[in-house]
Amino acid sequence: MSIIEKAAAELDKTLSDDASIVEKAANKLEGNGNMSHVEKAVRDKASRDFSSSSTSKVKSQRLALDFAKLRHYGIITPDDKKNTITEQFRVIKRPLLVNSFNQSGAGAVKNGNLIMVSSSLAGEGKSFCAVNLAMSIAMEMDHTVLLVDADVARPMVPKILGLETDKGLLDVLLDDKLDLTEVLIKTNIEKLSILPAGRHHPNANELLASQSMGLLLKELVHRYEDRIIIFDSPPLLLTSESRVLAGQMGQIVLVVEAEETSQQTVRETLRQIESCEIVNLVYNKARSFSDKDLYAAYEPY
After folding, report:
1. Domain 63-300 is of which CATH architecture?
2. In this predicted model, what pLDDT tens digit does every residue of 166-193 receive, in sequence order?
3. Which residues pair with 195 in a beta bridge?
4. Nearest-CA neighbor of 113 among 214, 223, 228, 231?
5. Distance from the Cα of residue 16 to its chain's centroid
6. Cβ contacts of residue 33 below 8 Å, gap of 6+?
7. Any idea where the domains of the chain sit in the sequence?
């Protein structure tokens, strides 16, 4: 057995235990003056393979969503039978999906797969609708969905889904060395991933209007061309930053609380986001349609 084969054998033996042991084994040969450039390459490749394997294990972790708990709060789950809320969100998502991948011709929608779900004011149910829309799209055969919690000042997605999160969107915006894949959360719904808001920052809302956010949006569009990306954003009349974010979206879903949000408020909100060509209204909490289900009625604007 040659020195090269001995080095490779010793590296293979120790690789599964610890990367530092790999390094020590290789350095031992190097210190004895018996390691050539080829053998060093064997050592370096083994170290890279170990590092890649460890990173892969971290990225492959999945979060098990509690379907029973989600159903209790009116959230769509994969094993739902046909009911009012699932049918309503099927109606809501269909034109959004058509627009998302219409990239050519007269009706082409720029950044059509970037969909922002928002409301005029707080408490209208935008996060509820954003999560349900993401869940409904995740049931599609041909599409995957990334749900981004962009309501960075008051993140609701973790509370709705029962997530315990650490790093997320804000961390990616603040640290250019942090890769997006390091903070994405995969779930037990194969086609649904989540990007949480991340750790609190005093200038959280301002970061949504930053150059870093613009660059991240471009990355999302190009990295995930076949994926629908849904943003649960801050209310449009409460932060100017959410209006800046709206200007970079391909489509907007505006949630309006039934019998609470005034027409004047809705008109003012629509005026704020007129730069986006495609805005859809979702009439939420409409009790007159059903005594049991919370659901949305869809009306294009």
Report:
1. 3-Layer(aba) Sandwich (3.40)
2. 899 999 999 989 999 999 999 999 999 9
3. 148
4. 228
5. 33
6. none
7. 3-59, 63-300
